[in-house]
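Researcher: Going back to the complex we discussed earlier. I've cleaned up the inputs and rechecked each line, so this should be the final set. Can you rerun the prediction on the complete assembly and write out the structure?
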Amino acid sequence: MAKAGLDGHDRGVKVVARALRDAGMEVIYTGVHQTPEQVVETALQEDADAIGVSLLSGAHNYIFPRIAELMKEKGMDDVLLFGGGIIPEADVAGLAKVGVERVFQPGASLEEITTYVKEAVPRRRGVPS
Amino acid sequence: MTIQKTKTAKQRWLDEVYGPAVKRRPERKSRFSTLSDDPVDPLYTADDLEGFDPDRDLGFPGEFPYTRGVQPSMHRGRLWTMRQFAGFGSAEDSNERFHYLMTQGVTGLSVAFDMPTLMGRDSDDPLSRGEVGREGVAVDSLRDMEILFDRIPLDQVTTSMTINGPASIVWAMYLANAEKRGIPLDRLGGTIQNDCLKEYIAQREWIVPVKPAMAVVVDTFRYGSREVPRWNTISISGYHIREAGATALQELAFTLIDGLEYVKWGVEAGLDVDDFVPHLSFFFDVHSDFFEEIAKFRAARRIWAREIERRYHPRNERTLLLRTHAQTAGVSLTAQQPYNNVVRVTLQALAAVLGGTQSLHTNSLDETYALPTKEAVTLALRTQQVIAHESGVADTIDPLAGSYYLEHLTQRMEEGFARYLAEIEKFGGMVEAVERGYPQREIIESAFHFQQQVDEGEKVIVGINKYATEREPPIPTLAIDPEVERKQVERLAETRRTRDKARWKRALDELREAAKTGDELMPRFLECARAYASVGEQVAVLKDVYGVYHDPGYF
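Model: Rerun complete. Updated structure for the full complex:
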């Protein structure tokens, strides 16, 4: 789980990180103020199955594509990229195009998110869940 | 009736009337609790106020312990300041919004800076990419400050600036701008947020480690009380603590304990409490649980007055006053059914007024999507004006005093504060508790607990986990012109090209020297501002000398 850019709103990302951990997953949280490079580097080092990025600053149209681009460069095709935060509906389709599989908007429940990650990670890896 | 008599009478009612009724027809829930999940009883009576002494615990408005308000006539004398937080895009855009708000009856300005500025980074910093002008206005140098306050009478408005890590630097730019326009500093009024502790606790806009950050804050206390006496040099903020997920009690306790820590540091730096403490102001969130919020404001005033009196015995009565700004709870707004937000904001604003706030910002209905449109901001302001002029609640002072429930909640806040104070004193004070992550962890626990309650339907959010509807038609939202970033980067490059290089270099060198030797910083920031040094350049000096803070990433 990551916070990228200068955005410090980390209530959501921490609650989600906690819920994923409670659902039995191993969760690494990067802390706030990470560059896209740092996020991808951490995911590589930790051999992560998924990268979840929280963005509430309005910088999503720059940060998500940059992370997706770096993931491609590093050959991380089987790693899931998803996100959440204040991301207008109008931007969601564009983000999907660059590889952000799912965007959770305000009001999403923890169960929706954990269920999604449990289903999407093995699917991404080509493993039957 | 004595308390014992009330107790017996209440027990009789519980056993003979209430109990059987509930048995016949169960209540809506098996357990009632406040938004902060404190249990709520079916009925409050005099026996819930054990030890309560109205003379001692309430007093009168404008008198110790200020439970009923800090001014003798409260909102009858002067309404609270209607201060709408604004700033977006370029300095020109924000300047235009300020002028608009002033024509609509806003009585104080409040500047929202963009993320790069808040984090002390220039608009051309690689980390600023995509964030320039997005969440507020970009200010890189005095040049932007000149544009931002163009044609605004700085000696007639008060200006609040929500900025923390680089607060001194940006404040110095405001002062330098006034100086250039020939306005004496002692005629300027306003507030800088400048509350570094809550950055580590909740908001995460830190720059340097905790202890040097405290020293930079104390430096503004010294300069402000000497040179800019109408300025509040800090706004000790519970808002961000609450928004990060704290309960009402945690917000109250951590904020007041932060305040006590600032006072302690000021005193240890040789300042006189009666000189600087009257310039400390507060900023609380006002959330949706109506009575809990009103109690929080009342308790805050009483606790602050009692703690300052107990510790310092000030001679100046103003030293005891907790003056506060309030803002409705951003976190309570929903993207779904966004018009419901108007109702939430109204109730929250009403609680802030009944809680006796000195100033208020009401959120706009569209803020889960973006910064607010002009129309949405206007409606938010009108909400305050309707409360002020039509509801009658501002016409008498502290009208809910004496309510068994409210006084009980107020007392309970004070008791809860004492427990947190004891806990934090075990660490040696707030600075140490923050370094060890104590308040941070307490807040995460509460945030997670609340989300679980929402997911389980124990806490209802209308339009989210109850009365949800299919997608509604979109509401209009404010878009930020992507050109803003490019233009801002250009302006900064031009400032760098055209400024007096020798003066600029000397100013930064002197800042570095003062930071190293522990000499006064504010005069150096002021000279840096005059020399058009950028925010990022000055912050780089501070980071060089003091080091940087890294997020421990507790969750």
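Model: Worth noting: The two ends of chain A are 22 Å apart (CA to CA).
Researcher: Good, that matches what I expected from the previous run.
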